[in-house]
Amino acid sequence: MVHATSRTEHVDVLIVGAGISGIGAAYYLQKEHPDRSYAILEARGATGGTWDLFRYPGIRSDSDLHTFGYEFKPWRDQDAIASADKILAYLRETSAENGIDAKIRFHHKVLGAAWSSADARWVIDVERRVAGEGTEELVQISANWIFCAGGYYRYDQGYTPQFKGRDRFRGQVVHPQHWPEDLDYAGKKVVIVGSGATAVTLVPAMADTAGHVTMLQRSPTYVLPVPSKDTFANAAQKLLGAERGYALARRKNIVKQRAVYQLSQKYPAAARKLIRHLNARELPAGYPVDEHFNPAYNPWDQRLCAVPDADLFKAISSGAASVVTDRIVTFTETGIQLESGKHLEADIIVTATGLNIQLLGGMSLTVDGTPVDLADSIAYKAMMLSGVPNFAFAFGYTNSSWTLKVGLLCEHFCRLLSHMDAQGYDIARADVVEDGMATRPMLDLSAGYVQRALDRLPKQGDGDPWRVSMNYYHDVEMLREGSIVDPHLQFASSEQAVAQPKPAVALPV
């Protein structure tokens, strides 16, 4: 049962989401603007976002933690490709040691937010679960700014295609996003449907315990073996100390990530050949590499899947796991019937079939009474939406470590607040000033989870500041070093601010 309450409180900045982006945003905000009040609303009952939500075997990062970690907090563990428990401990340590924990409100789900230009503030509708009562109440919080750090996919629902005959299967069907704590797969035949990052993580993690694990893929994905430990990074921290060694390793890995991406984009044939060579080297002689690990698309048209210490290939080589490239005709009572005529026997079927994209946590927005359609908006510097005042969001890189971009966006957001303070403004809104500006999807990936959501996502333009850059060095120039002042960013003072103007402070922009 949902009860309404008339209680309304106000904060300067409301951060939505207590995962890696939300904790980072809170750190930068309180460091650069200690006098501003803020709160973090988290729909779930724990911090950590992805790293607390997913509980499937072997869950780990697919980026190195020297770049996926925060710039301001060294990653001290020996593993560069780290397990979820280590990442979660790192995030919670960051939150605790900076006093961010005290600002988090758990079981607070943002439903919608309404902007008033006259008041220069948002009024946010929140569903709050009442502890110990099993009921919800509706509360309102007002804020001058919203910073949405809720990620890009639905936390309550993964994506599973409609498989013919699914109800016939007498075994258990599991989606990785909702992994049962008591799932017993010891000695059992497991078929994992999918070939993305989740699937290639699950296969080696389950292979030692299960009777046999089969990864069933409709088409191959690029899989790149990488060392789980970064020898250079560990040596640098030992010789130079945690902070200097971490900074050096971070710079090295940023260059490395960018080089791999540029090689793939400029010389796709060479990149394809190199990846195939690395795969073949880890697999048994005569293994059909081209059948199972040679995608039809070019490298980085979709994300590369990293496998630490070639664990996927080792599981295949040992005979504990196998890969089948085929299409599903129907589920049967005992497994899956394939187009080739082959039948895969299974006790458990894991549908590692992807995510459902959902920006802004599913919240609705209105500006002065007019609903905001995300599909009609254009992303400004990949952190604001055209026509939506005082609203920022965190969206990281898809071709590199997510957090590299989020850190720069947080810095830019804090600089924007400083500029507004200096000039006495309390409203900032991005507007497209060119007529007929060409647009394209905000995400330029061919992955299925992206293609399914294109009609619900914002657009991007062809050039700055409307282009969603995936280049760290470009973003350093624009977000960290570039001017806040921009012809596409309009500033104003509300009637309330005019009546009680803020003192102007000369600050660099």
Globally, the shape reads globular
Helix fraction bin = 25-40%
Total number of helical segments?
Answer: 14
Task: Give the name of the CATH architecture of the largest domain.
Answer: 3-Layer(bba) Sandwich
Considering the protein shown, what is the CATH homologous superfamily of the largest domain? FAD/NAD(P)-binding domain
**Helix-strand makeup class:** alpha/beta
For the largest beta-sheet, the strand count, sense and barrel status come to: 9 strands, mixed
Instruction: List how many beta strands DSSP finds.
Output: 27
* CATH domain class name of the largest domain: Alpha Beta
Cofactor: FAD
Pfam families: FMO-like, NAD_binding_8
InterPro entries: FAD-binding_MO, FAD/NAD-bd_sf, Flavin_mOase-like
Family: Belongs to the FAD-binding monooxygenase family.
SSE order and pairing:
Blueprint: E1 2-16, H1 20-32, E2 38-42, H2 50-53, H3 65-68, H4 84-97, E3 104-106, E4 108-116, E5 121-130, E6 135-148, E7 153-158, E8 172-174, E9 189-193, H5 197-207, E10 212-217, E11 223-226, H6 231-240, H7 242-266, H8 268-282, H9 289-292, E12 305-308, H10 311-318, E13 321-325, E14 328-331, E15 335-338, E16 343-345, E17 348-351, E18 355-357, E19 364-367, E20 370-371, E21 379-380, E22 384-385, E23 391-393, H11 402-423, E24 427-430, E25 439-441, H12 448-451, E26 459-461, H13 472-481, E27 489-492, H14 495-499
Parallel strand pairs: 1-2, 1-6, 2-3, 4-19, 6-23, 8-17, 9-10, 9-17, 10-13, 11-12
Antiparallel strand pairs: 4-5, 5-6, 7-18, 14-15, 15-16, 19-20, 21-22, 24-27, 25-26
